[in-house]
Write a structure and sequence with these properties.
By secondary structure, the chain is α/β, with parallel strands linked by helices. The protein folds into three domains: about 10-125, Rossmann fold, CATH 3.40.50; about 130-300, Arc Repressor Mutant, subunit A; about 315-389, no CATH class. Helices cover about 45% and strands about 15% of the residues. It is built from 17 helices and 14 strands. It has helices at about 10-15, 30-40, 50-60, 60-65, 80-90, 105-115, 130-140, 145-150, 155-160, 165-185, 190-200, 210-215, 220-230, 260-270, 275-280, 280-300, 345-350, and strands spanning about 20-25, 45, 70-75, 100-105, 120-125, 205, 235-240, 255-260, 310, 315-325, 325-330, 360-365, 370-375, 375-380. The protein has a six-stranded mixed beta sheet with strand order 9-10-11-12-14-13. Strands 2-3-4-1-5 form a five-stranded parallel beta sheet, with helices on both faces. Strands 6-8-7 form a three-stranded antiparallel beta sheet. Helix 8 (about 145-150) packs across helix 14 (about 260-270). The longest helix is centred in the last third of the chain and has 21 residues, at about 280-300.
């Protein structure tokens, strides 16, 4: 079952203006399906097949002659030599857009080759998991908690009979054994799995690499490298603090957010609705899920995300958007019925910003319907992304 992706118009737009489009993102986010819908008349080849990857690497000229453009090349990072020959082929027809659509799930190798060989020729886009709006189209009966525990991997919505826990267990194993062992110098995969679980338990918290490293039993420098691997692999997002020269003491550390709520919950040990409702971490998981949904929506619309958070000695706001001197502020609440009291942090931060610069304030909760609050609004999950507009 094809789930209509919000990113499809943007991919087609980039294909109409660039000879090469590179689609990256975590495994199982639907890159192949999106690519084939974006270029339905193109040829298709996957380098997941060792025989194809070997020919593409050893004799890229013959490979490209056998597979002429327009062409989709899946998992292109398995043949690094192919990039240099793609440059030559593309340059021979530089004004022809939409020649190649490349996908890859290992961003370290992929982006290095793109930067070295296809700079100025390729447009790079990231594909995230499903947004809540995409999920509602195919499964409108699922409530926010269902979606929170299931996450955003398309496969889990093509067939609701798939056991999410088995899927996540297999996903973690594949990531550890296939991607990480190949791309990073990880001597002890058991330590790294503990590191992933430790990071998940810190979702929506200020990042402290030293504390995380100490709890896992590794050095802070190793924790930094592994955290970069998680971020590049799409498992976590680091939300940076908003900074402005106001004389205030603002936080400098990013907040750590799990990118997929289902996978993050699994790594936390939360597998059932009753576990979630009883967990003291439910608010953290909800906050990270909301942040991920806002980021994914921005990426699908524009190709990038511009979100921050605010924290000073007295106040914290979970989400900040800044555009040309104007601010939108939002707090994320687990509550099903946010009230005017939930606006206090937003109002306090707004008072410290230039007069008239805050254009919109909202509480992003779990209420069934959106409703106005004094000087702001309480937004239901289906309306969270209206705050972005």
């Amino acid at each position: 079952m094809w789930i209509e992706r919000e990113a499809l118009p943007l991919v087609r737009q980039r294909l109409a203006h660039h000879p090469v489009v590179v689609l990256t993102g975590a495994r199982q986010t639907g890159k192949t399906s999106l690519a084939r819908h974006a270029l339905p008349e193109a040829g298709y080849i996957t380098l997941d097949l060792p025989s194809e990857a070997e020919q593409a690497e050893r004799d890229p000229t013959a490979f490209l002659a056998r597979h002429p453009a327009p062409l989709i090349v899946d998992e292109v990072q398995y043949a690094p030599a192919l990039f240099r020959h793609l440059k030559t082929v593309v340059d021979a027809h530089r004004d022809l857009p939409g020649q190649y659509l490349l996908t890859g799930s290992q961003p370290f190798a992929l982006m290095r080759e793109v930067a070295d060989s296809l700079a100025g020729r390729a447009s790079v886009l990231q594909l995230t998991g499903l947004t809540w709006a995409e999920i509602r189209v195919v499964h409108p009966h699922l409530d926010p908690i269902d979606v929170l525990l299931r996450g955003g991997f398309p496969e889990l919505y093509r067939n609701l009979d798939i056991d999410p826990q088995g899927f996540f267990r297999s996903y973690v194993t594949t990531y550890l054994e296939r991607d990480l062992r190949q791309q990073q110098n990880v001597g002890n995969l058991r330590d790294f799995e503990r590191f992933i679980r430790g990071a998940a338990l810190r979702t929506a918290g200020l990042l402290n690499r030293s504390d995380l490293a100490r709890d896992v039993g590794i050095s802070p420098s190793t924790a930094g490298l592994w955290l970069s691997a998680l971020e590049a692999g799409g498992l976590v997002t680091l939300l940076e603090p908003w900074f402005m020269n106001t004389g205030k003491s603002l936080a400098k550390s990013p907040k750590l957010h799990g990118t997929d709520s289902g996978l993050t919950a699994f790594l936390m040990g939360i597998t059932r609705r009753e576990d979630l409702l009883a967990s003291p971490l439910r608010g953290n998981l909800w906050e990270s899920a909301v942040i991920a949904n806002l980021r994914a929506t921005q990426i699908n619309r524009t190709g990038g995300a511009d979100l921050w958070y605010w924290r000073d000695r007295s106040h914290e706001v979970d989400v900040v958007i800044h555009e040309a001197g104007r601010f939108r502020l939002a707090d994320v609440k687990w509550s099903e019925s946010p009230d005017a009291g939930d606006l206090r942090q937003l109002q306090a931060v707004a008072k410290g910003l230039p007069d008239g610069s805050v254009t919109r304030m909202a509480v992003l909760g779990r209420s069934a319907n959106s409703y106005p609050l004094k000087t702001g609004a309480a937004l239901a999950p289906q309306d969270h992304t209206t705050w972005l507009a």
